[in-house]
Amino acid sequence: MNEELKKKRDEVLRRFLAARDRKKEYLVEMEERMRRNYKLRTGMDATNFSAL
Fold it and tell me: What pLDDT sits at residue 52?
């Protein structure tokens, strides 16, 4: 039982960390797109960016 619990815990942790890394990558891409779109619309550089 203890070994099975450890395997499940490791799998959940691996999936959680992978999802966190994917989110970081996505937020970087999203920020770049938003900054580029803002510059195209206004002609000015974006000074602030905020995402949850």
Answer: 61
d(CA 8, CA 24): 25
pLDDT in tens, 31-40: 999 999 999 9
pTM: 0.69
Asked whether 51 and 27 are in contact (CB, 8 A), the reply is yes
Cα angle 36, 19, 9; round to 5: 165
Q: What is the DSSP string of the chain?
A: -HHHHHHHHHHHHHHHHHHHHHHHHHHHHHHHHHHHHHHHHHSS--------
Closest CA to 49 of 41, 33, 40, 19: 33
